[in-house]
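[Q] Does anyone have a clean structure-token version of this?
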Amino acid sequence: MSMSGKKYPVPPLLSQTADVQMQMTLRQIGFDAASKAPKPSALMPPASPPRNEEALALKRRDWLLGTMERQRALSSYASGLLTAENLPGEAFLHDFYATGRPVVIKGAMAGWPALEKWTPDYLADTIGDAVVEYQGGREGAGDYELAKDRHKRRAPFRAFLALIRDGGNDAYITAYNSSANATAFAPLEKDLGRLDAYLTRAPGMLWIGPKDTFTPLHFDLTNNLLAQVTGTKRVILVPPSQTARMAHRRHVFSDVHDLTDPARLALHPAARDVLHYEVVLNPGDLLFIPIGWWHQLRSESFSTMLTYTNFQWPNIGHEEYPAG
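[A] Here you go.
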């Protein structure tokens, strides 16, 4: 024991008492004083449940999710993908955010200058040759979403636009590049409105890409609000109840990859008849995707979109996700 650097001797009686307490503690954890070694059974961790018990637990989980989904299917209102016009914040909270239910919201972006302005020519004139970060080399790389850092590229913005002129999935500015691009894209903020009914004032994460950019089947660890600015995107949504069919092995991604690809479905036949919803996002549309909902997105034209996670209410599921 020490205080302010000065050491104090331990009285003999206290030392003997401490020795007795230590011996009692060692006995409690299985320490054999004669052999000076702990008993093997005392320090071993509890046995893991047998694998058949783990499999049974997963089957019970899937049964519960499937049963709940079949019950929702009794009502077209309860099970459908709803579209709402100018949805108030309180209604959004009670009917969709708190219940974890997707919804398409129309009208909330009315009057945003970006809806008309954000053509490739306008973006080129506004951003110019500012260097931006993007995801490149995606074509032919099946793990481009898992290995995002490996696919980071940098180029003047005009050069990036030239790369994507003919479409394809090779080059794409995604939400993952947002932090690096904050300064370059700051001049675009003046073209955006606010979504105060649902969000705080934090900025969104910008996506810019050509026709045929594709984000494979995955779920997110936050609730997301997608705001389609220009162009169109086709989105397929799959509820969490279908997870057992999603070949989910790696992080938040599905080995199915693309529910519209016959070759992938042949490899994963359980996903062929999966319950899903399909929606085309047009300029000015919002799509709320709750945490845990599987989704994939494909651009049908040159597209700009924002993703927001800064809701007025807690959005913290990612902090407890058992990654591995």
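[Q] Thanks! Anything notable?
[A] The chain has one domain: 81-318.
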